[in-house]
# Entry
Amino acid sequence: MFLEVKDIHKSYGEKDNRIEVLKGISLSIDKGEFCVLLGPSGSGKSTLLNILGGIDEADSGTIEILGKQMTMLKEKELTQYRRNHLGYVFQMYNLIPNLTVRENIEVGAYLSKKPLDIDHLLVLLGLEEHQDKLPRQLSGGQQQRTSIGRAIIKNPDILLCDEPTGALDYKTSKEILKLIEDINREYGNTIIMVTHNAAIKEMADVVVRLRDGMIRDIVRNVEKKKAEDLEW
Amino acid sequence: MVRQKNPLRHRVIREIFGDLGKYATIFIMMVAMIGLASGYLIAVDSMQKGYAEGFSLYNIEDGNFTVANKLTDDQIDEIEKSGNTIYPIFFKDVEMEDHHTLRMMVERKNVNQIILDEGKMPTRMNEVAIDRNFADNNQLKIGDHLSSNQYDYEIVGLVSFSDYSAMFSSNKDSMFDAILFSVAVVSEESYEAEKAKEIYRYAWQYESKAKDEAEEKKWADEFVSTVRKNSELEEYVPQYLNQAIFFAGDDLQSDSSMIHLFLYIMLLIMAFVTSLTTADTIVKEAGVIGTLRASGYTKWELFIHYLSPLLLVIFVACIVGNLLGYTYLKDVMRNLYYNSYSFPNYPTLINMEAFLETTIAPVIIMIVVSVIVLMRKLSISPLQFLRHDLSRKKNHFAMKLAHSISFFFRYRLRVIFQNIPHYFMLFIGLLLANILLLFGLSLPYTIDHYEETIAEDLLATKQYILSIPANINLEAESMEEKMALMEFMQGIETETEGAEKFTLYQLKTHNAVKEENVLVYGVQEESEYIDQKIPYGKIYVSTACANKFRAEVGNEIELKEQYEDKVYTFKIDGIYPYNSSVAIFMNQEYANEVFDLGEEYFSAYFSDEEIKDIDEQYIASEIDAESLTKVTRQLNVSFGGFMRALRIATFVIFFTMMYLLTKIIIEKNSQSISMVKILGYTTQDIQKLYLRATSIVTIVEMLICLPIANSVNRWMIEDYMSARMTGYLPYHAPSNLFVRMFLTGMIAYIVVAILEMVKIYRIPKTDALKNVE
# Structure
């Protein structure tokens, strides 16, 4: 198995204010699979994504990626893990305001020994004409494309997407989802996407539904819908 | 595969221009600090080295003596048998039109050489070369004419005299006069033609150099007795007592301590600004840092990235500061001295020490501070950055505020609580800026007040200090000598009503930071002039002495002889209110005994009336309000330019500090400001919430800063400066000065507030839409 998560617990706060946000999460994902973590607000999906991304720590439980225990890694090793294996896409893009589109994507390329071809990627992202613009000159969709470009250019093993369409309109959201789908198909990265949009589950290989810090069910889609066919 | 260069490098220049206010502030402060301090140190160091080298380069005398009649060849031979060489340095003091006095002499080849700065030396009748400083002070140039009562002279050259760097017409003067008195070279023909009285002064040089002042004093005493035996001696001045030669050098030395003090305060400010701006950058960039860290960027890569803009600004500021220092500012600083002293044009020397102090040290301090702040700030987790949760504290509790307090007031209190660390730093910044500003403002007041105090505080209207003429031998052997001594003893008696004899003796401090002269007043027990009965064996110190050495009643004070190692320890029995000089008072009988001067000895008079019946030759100097205040007037001239420069520099610092800190607070809250804008708050409402909170804090902090700055300045002037200068300068800052300072601060703040109002107005509403979990 490519990614194996076992009995992850996580809580915040202390004593009386302690809230357990993950209550024993276990799941496994194969290489190249498109996994959607679905759930309402407060279900723990973003926390799980952050733990998988090595930017938050689990209280207990194990995460094994490519046979390596991630929960045992020290801070420096975690940085290397993120550097070598992960790409991150955030809801609000988090682009660097004083770098151009191309330079923002280069920020990701720099981290990889074998980055993808940036010109090809710019075409794929539909940003070829905007590559010399600063983020503030772009629409929300274009900014999110840039953010995806930054994450994907290093050709990561896993692409983590935290509500990537959360701030976008319907049409743009579908364009972004199609882009993620294309990337998954073209580069074969494992994609884990957090969303509360139930419609998106239909384009995933695996759907993990969370509620109140626990897995409600894990569904493997026999047939996936194309992003462009999704409706909500 | 060739490793790609870090793409973040593209941001470095953009980051600087994107936050121009911040980086420009750092740049201006660095350039001002480096430029002013290095300009000063380079100028002073070049002058000091040139001045010191001048002693051998221009063959400066080891002393001079004046005789009533020109020495004959036989007399010269007799005197030179001592092994010392003498050279004639005759002159005539010529009264010029416009009331100037020009000391004219012919060019000297062998001793006390004259340096030609511009033009040529006079070779013909009616040509003159005048002192460069005198020319500057009187707007004279080559080709202009000067007239004495007899002749008209054309100025053909500008010169500097190696033995007249400070224009003392007489060594008895307490202060030089660079305006009305000067020295000049004329041709032999002109010199002969001038009718003014010729003064027969000879310079002497020892066979070798004395190893210290004590040896020099011994040699001088031996030499003068030889001269006395062979001539009609009127005056003699060994080199170490010659103010025309040493005054300027001593002044250069003492002023250096001021600039070092300025430099240390600036260093503190710079370190503080650096830490603040670096921390601010991290706060503003939290989202970017979180993303980059989550993407796999290492702390080290980000550390280098966030250090780079600052390093670049510092680097350029160092270059610009040093360039300014070595070119324009060096001349500005040099002219502060060239307006008072007659130095030749010394070459500018590369000064590694100045470079180290003004450039390397600040750069290292700024880098170290940035590194510490960055290391600390970057050590939190990527998630915390993404959540903009940069506080290390885990528990956040909202302080309870009564609901009865108005909403706006509560909101402002919340803004203040939220920004306590920033307001604390604002306080430190204001304090440092206030200290510097007060220093620049209060020193002239201190000097003026000192002048007034001296006038009010005189022991007597005049103190006449007697001198033993050079031809008097206290251990007279020959009949001629005995007659002369008797004549002297009678000559120093006065019939002037109220004149009171006292013993004035000079000692030096022992084991002090700076060797300092201490006057010993041996006064009569029932003195009319000292309002304190001082019994035999009791010691009183002047307030100036007590303050300077932090001495209290019951303490002991150690003093030593001027040129010997003999040390005296006196127990202080009281403090006498006298601020004009560092002095101790004792019973005259006791003083004469302690210093082995003889029972009847006295060396000075107190008198409220002018003493007219003592021959001038027996009076070494007169201490009165005018002579004492000459020093303060010259202090005003010497420090005047420096203080003006310091006031301007500190105002710039004051303003930039306020701007920087207020800017940080507004920027830190830009998201909240944007959010309340969305909610429908007007710009005026927002100003009431954010800017007024800062205004209240600024006013309160300014008010707290003033008394602290006052105490620090008192310490700096009374302890630091006084320890490094001769005499004691009691600190004085009148209350209206603080009102002025406060208003200055407020004016600076109003300008800053207006700039920030514009900034608030420009904060886009979209800022609030940024993702902050």
User: Anything to note?
Assistant: Residues 769-773 of chain B have pLDDT under 50 and may be disordered.
